[in-house]
Amino acid sequence: MAHDPSAVPTPAPASPAAAESRASRGQLSSLWRAMRHLEGRRLWIGLGLLVLGTLSEGAAIMTFLPVLQLVGAGGTTIDLSGLDFPGAGLLPAVIPLGLLLLAIVGLTGLQALFNRSKAVYLSDLIYDFTNHYRTALFRDVAQARWAHVARIPRSRIEHALTGEIERLYLAAFLVLSILQNLVGLSLYFVLSLAISVPMTLLSYGFGIVALALMRPFRRLARHYGDRLQDRRERQLAAVSEFVGSLKMARSMNLESRYLGLFSAILGQTKADAREFTRQSTIGSGLFQFAVVSGAALFIWVALRWVHLDVGRIVILLLLFMRTAPRFMGMQGAVQQLLVDLPAWGAITRLRDDLQAQHDPAMEGSDPAPAPRREIRLDRVTWRFPGESREAVSDCSLTLRAGELTVLVGPSGAGKTSMADIVMGLLEPQKGAVLVDGTALRPGQLRRWRDRTGYVAQEPFMINGTIRENMAIAAGGPVDDERIFRALDLASAGFVRNLPAGLETMMGDRGALLSGGERQRIAVARALLREPDVLVLDEATSALDWENEEALIRAIDGLRGRMTILAITHRPALSRAADAVFVMEAGRVVASERPREQGMQAEGYLGRMTS
Ligand SMILES: Nc1ncnc2c1ncn2[C@@H]1O[C@H](COP(=O)(O)OP(=O)(O)OP(=O)(O)O)[C@@H](O)[C@H]1O
User: Fold this and answer.
1) What is the ipTM for the molecules in this complex?
2) Domains in the chain: how many in total?
3) Ligand 1 nearest atom to the CA of residue 386, by list position
4) What phi and psi values does residue 86 have, to the nearest 5 degrees?
5) Is residue 570 assigned to a domain?
6) How far is 163 from 171, CA to CA, in rounded Å?
7) Residue 417 Cα, ligand 1 centroid: separation in angstroms?
8) Containing domain of residue 323, as a range?
9) What are the pLDDT digits (tens) for 379-399?
10) Which of 384, 536, 583 most suits a substitution to test ligand 1, by most atoms within 8 Å of the C-beta?
11) 265 domain-assigned
């Protein structure tokens, strides 16, 4: 099996705190592995740039060392012969002060330019890394088995693709910033050692002890990160639910209920954030206090015990001023990283889950036949994963090519599952789908889906023009002639008479058109694919009778051009059908051919309309 760099090791059972810390370490090392795996060479180049950046900063500080010999002594030339740091031998013996100061200014300018390029390079690197996961997650969702994806709450997927990915960006940024601090601290360590070994050990020892003492605050950050994850998920679920049911909420005066729910979650999130900020600022305050105490101790020891000259003390202090914020930066970055790491954990878990349910049909490219005579579902059984009851039980039915077949039955009878089996979205655990007598193989399902068109009760519409909405099905721009042909077939010729024609805006989810118009456009959109099989799932159910009649006329006109399967609760469409199958509790319990036999009073349709 291929090694997955993002795999998070499962921690062994332990005390909650130890388990949490192990989980964080696991997530961190898996994030680092993923960054190395994906960005490999660029990551090392980025690290090289960080080293160079710190070196140039260090060099700028070291150039002050010779200037300091003028302190008290005065003069305009500097004697470099007494310098004993590495590489000092390469310098001339004497240098004018003006030239040295110019060199310092020039060096700082170059450093600023270099830092700019370094920042852009690292920013690109993090964006590319994050975008890789965004697209990978997108692909995983698109390629997982439909039965599995259908069970994942929409808000969970939306949250992963938006909020969690943003936090992953932050986490990757923080990993780099921790690296930057580590590189800086290591290089300054070497520079300081060249000036004074005991003072270096004292200041670094102090920093390391202070970092170790901050452990409880890191644990706090971990807790907060986990809670934040949960709160954000609930926040997004509440938003999705409210936005998804906006009309219902407005019509039933439920907005205050949603607002209350939302405010409660926001209140909890705020309380968490407040508590975290309160506690963590105690930590950073203590750290700051420790750093200032360290500086005081540092000067005291340097003057009283180590007896350093003023020049060296000033340089060491300059270095100290660079290293102390890095120790503080380390603590801050690690703390924030622990807050954002759970998002990485959640993304990897979701990806693992989706990949374990990868739809093998996605790889299939075998051609699928167009039905000439019939599509037969032969003794098919389908049970949703984890459910004890079969949604479809040993069902057989035949859709004759070119006919309109209607599936009716009470809610939960298994009609949608049957339609999904016809479309190749669900692969029955038992039985087969036969096209003109030959069973469809898994390798043919992808191309089979190319042969199908689908219209839902609430068809998906983007907030764009009619043309843009039509183009979705074609997968790209289509010429007007094809669009109008499809619109005419779907009895949606009214578009020609609209002042803006195909450029008419449909509004959010098509809200600027009537339900019937929207639905006929949805049928036209499906027809643009020139499908051999058209599936309509409750496509007429939300319409008034006039619009329903218009849509039924359109469907009626498609008879003979393609095989149509329609699910409905309404008698009007059933009356127009060639064949009606009645489903109950996952089984086909009756069938009628109303056009040939007329409506039988004791039949399902007869009872439905009586
Ligand atoms: N994603 C799912 N996960 C688990 N069970 C499901 C899922 N979708 C449907 N079911 C169950 O499978 C059975 C058949 O559902 P199906 O949607 O096929 O029925 P239906 O006749 O189309 O119902 P309706 O008319 O209400 O849409 C029902 O018991 C339903 O609860």
Assistant:
1) 0.94
2) 2
3) 4
4) -60, 135
5) yes
6) 12
7) 7
8) 38-358
9) 999 998 888 899 999 999 999
10) 384
11) yes
